[in-house]
Design brief:
The complex is a heterodimer of chains A (284) and B (304). Chain A has 284 residues and is mostly helical. Chain A is 81% helix and 0% strand. In chain B, a hairpin with a 5-residue loop joins strand 11 and strand 12.
């Protein structure tokens, strides 16, 4: 018993582990709130694209000694706005617009980095994530962005739902649909930046997709999906951090794979229930 | 609850009303009442719920979708809007809703410009325009009808919730309130969208293809709901490809193909001449009241 307690407590005797956990709690919250819209509006490609686009901003900021997180934020939001603009005004399809912008921004990042002699470890942490390297200042930055993103969703929840569910009716009653469509893209950009330091460019979309997708298998209403998604995110984070600490594996993929396992279990459980009760609704 | 046709005292069916037409299937062979008996030809109009005059509208960089369109929806009446796909029906709806700004002409809703009347108008889009897989309940959807304006952290009031419950009862599906919208049948989805318009408390209802893909029985039930609404003073503009429905249940018909090809009592408007112009095909009315339309000739066109 004491051994178990020791096993559980040991990681959190270190400040960097406590910061890692705090960071993942914030990431899970933003991922749940924004990710629910991402999953149900089929915007996963946007999440992935915006994550990759951050490399351009990250590289430029890094080379110039500016705040890397700020560089990421500027790049992600600018790309989100560009994608939204092209989507509304041109004949280029949505996924094509995303692909063009994100490979361009990513290329810009690689170009800037290539001028440096070595691929520095600091930049590597943005690509692959460095949960254990999250600083106090990073945490504050994440928290500010999280409050803004979650606050916006809470404030304009009805409008965001209406634009997502029935844009024709939304514009008919006078909701500013264009504003809220852009807002959703910017929210995704912000959510990506919140998770960037901890999870890394390559895996960051996972925080927006896997927990809400898992929760959507179990629940059928947005508030429930968001709540369940948050809990799934937190549980995966805790399990992933233990795996990282005790088994010495990288934390970021451990967290993601734990979430994937949860998704697989939920998928199997709901498939089983459907098989046993054909015709029954998958969730109440 | 005013009526301008003297049918305010009548029930949802209204086939006892002398002002209503009896000859168009008001009662079928088995004694079932028609869902809605239209007003007799020559009925007098009340004040206008909707008045579109000389409307030109369209999108930038394209020829106008609507040219010199004029039509009215008198209060308490149901007007059927008929026309081929691409005839400008959606543009007309969007203009009435203030989403598309007229190039020329004027639209007045209850005598006021559309910018002032959003609360009085409810729009029921085509069923495909809605994302039915979105994780919202039927109650959530009906509540959206109560939206009155953006403001941070606004929540639904008790009054909003009561209106939503009442609207679901009106369309006969109060038991569906907690269901996810994706679980509903086609007919139930239409009922929910109509409930949302009812919950809005609007006096002018715009319905875009509410019967598409429904069987005749479900269409009948929906028409009965719409009939009740008109008896309570609601005015309805309904775009439909169901010419028989317009012939038998609408008080006025409007044939649209970029321009108004015909407007007036259905019997006067749904003629071979007007329909052929509207659909740019040879169409022939058949049946005792010429209320069913078929395509003539090489089969290159279909009316319904």
């Amino acid at each position: 018993m004491a051994e178990l307690a020791e096993w559980l407590i040991a990681p959190y005797e270190y400040a960097f582990m406590r910061r890692a956990l705090a960071s993942l709690l914030i990431v899970s919250l933003v991922g749940a709130v924004v990710g629910t819209f991402v999953v149900h509006k089929g915007l996963a490609a946007s999440g992935s694209g915006l994550a990759h686009a951050t490399l351009g901003g990250v590289a430029i900021a890094f080379v110039n000694g500016a705040s890397v997180a700020l560089g990421a934020l500027v790049a992600a939001v600018a790309t989100a706005l560009a994608i939204g603009y092209v989507r509304r005004t041109s004949r280029v399809s949505y996924d094509t617009a995303i692909a063009i912008f994100f490979v361009s921004a990513f290329s810009l990042g690689i170009l800037v980095i290539s001028r440096r002699q070595s691929y520095t470890p600091d930049l590597g942490s943005f690509v692959f994530g460095d949960i254990l390297g999250v600083s106090q200042a990073d945490l504050v930055g994440e928290l500010v962005l999280a409050v803004v993103a979650v606050g916006f969703v809470l404030a304009f929840y009805r409008e965001l739902v209406m634009v997502a569910y029935d844009p024709a009716m939304a514009s008919a009653v006078g909701v500013r649909t264009a504003f809220f469509e852009f807002s959703l893209l910017v929210l995704i950009a912000v959510a990506v930046v919140v998770a960037l330091q901890a999870i890394g460019i390559v895996l960051v979309t996972a925080t927006l997709i896997i927990p809400p997708a898992t929760a959507s298998l179990l629940f059928r209403r947005i508030p429930q999906i968001m709540a369940a998604s948050f809990l799934i995110g937190v549980a995966s984070s805790v399990v992933g951090l233990y795996a990282s600490f005790h088994a010495g594996v990288a934390a970021s993929p451990a967290v993601v794979l734990t979430a994937t396992a949860a998704f697989a279990v939920a998928l199997a459980a709901t498939s089983l229930r459907r098989a046993r009760f054909p015709g029954a609704p998958t969730a109440e | 609850m005013t009526s301008h046709h003297g049918h305010d005292a009548h029930g949802p069916v209204g086939h006892e009303d002398p002002a209503h037409v009896h000859d168009v299937a008001a009662l079928d062979g088995a004694g079932h009442p028609a869902a809605r008996a239209r007003l007799a030809a020559g009925h007098t109009h009340g004040p206008l719920a909707l008045e579109v005059s000389g409307l030109w509208a369209g999108y930038p960089g394209k020829p106008p979708a609507l040219e010199d369109v004029s039509l009215v929806v008198p209060e308490g009446e149901m007007v059927g809007l008929v026309g081929p796909n691409g005839a400008g029906k959606s543009t007309l709806f969007k203009s009435i809703l203030g989403v598309v700004r007229p190039l020329r002409g004027e639209i007045r809703v209850f005598g006021r410009p559309v910018s002032e009347t959003r609360a009085d108008v409810a729009y029921t889009p085509q069923v495909e325009e809605v994302d039915w897989e979105f994780p919202v309940s039927v109650r959530d959807v009906v509540l959206l009808g109560r939206w009155r304006g953006s403001g941070p952290f606004r929540r639904w009031s008790r009054e909003d919730r009561d209106a939503a419950e009442g609207a679901l009862e009106r369309v006969g599906v109060p038991e569906l309130a907690n269901r996810q919208v994706g679980e509903l049948s086609g007919g139930q989805r239409r009922r929910v969208l109509i409930a949302r318009s009812i919950a809005r408390g609007a006096r002018l209802l715009l319905l875009d293809e509410p019967f598409a893909g429904l069987d005749a029985g479900v269409e009948h039930d929906l028409l009965a709901i719409l009939d009740e609404l008109t008896h309570e003073g609601c005015s309805i503009l309904i775009a439909t490809h169901d010419l028989a429905c317009v012939a038998s249940a609408c008080d006025e018909a409007c044939c649209l193909n970029r321009r108004v090809q015909g407007y007036g009592p259905p019997a006067d408007v749904l003629t071979e001449d007007v329909l052929s112009r509207t659909f740019e095909r040879a169409l022939v009315p058949i049946g005792a009241d010429r209320e069913f339309i078929i395509a003539e000739g090489n089969g290159s066109a279909g009316a319904n």
